Amino acid sequence: MEEQMEYNELIDRTLSGNSQAYAELYDKTIQDVFKNVYFLLDDKDDVDDVVQDTYIQVYSSLCKYDRDRPFKPWIMGIMMRQIRTYRRKRWMHFRNVKKAEGYAQKAEHDFSNDIVDRHFNDKLLDSVDNLPYKLKQVVILHYLNEYSQEEVASTLGIPLGTVKSRIHAALKKLRQKGQHYGDILSKVGNV
Asked: Can you tell me the distance from the alpha carbon of 5 to that of 10, in angstroms, rounded to the nearest whole number?
């Protein structure tokens, strides 16, 4: 609750024209936004661009922010929409290249970043990365960010039941591959 009050105060100061307040808001949220964008994009060269687009959208949308809702899921919702926009543009570009050249180059995955190493081992990351995007995004939001299933549903704008079924499907796929990751799987227990 105290954190939410801090966010509201920074938003008020930002909306009144205080650029330092927006810098503080950025500093309080950049680590979570960057981490999520990093995990959800295949092409790591575009992470900074998507993060920048996210903060441009946050700044222009602050006046529409509903103070009755938690700020972090709100900013994560904006981030997820920016990622979807990026993925659509990327897909269109991919299709155009494929049509023009008759083939597409597959983006190389680089999971050597320190952020990744601190949170998961490489084997788990590879397995999570190979999940379909819809499953991957709920796993990252729920387990990496420790969002409740309700917060994941709010962030993605999908029903709670859909979040639960996607988490179940993701864990089932991980188990089918013979991956036993106590950290993630023990959190769900009886799913």
From this structure: 9
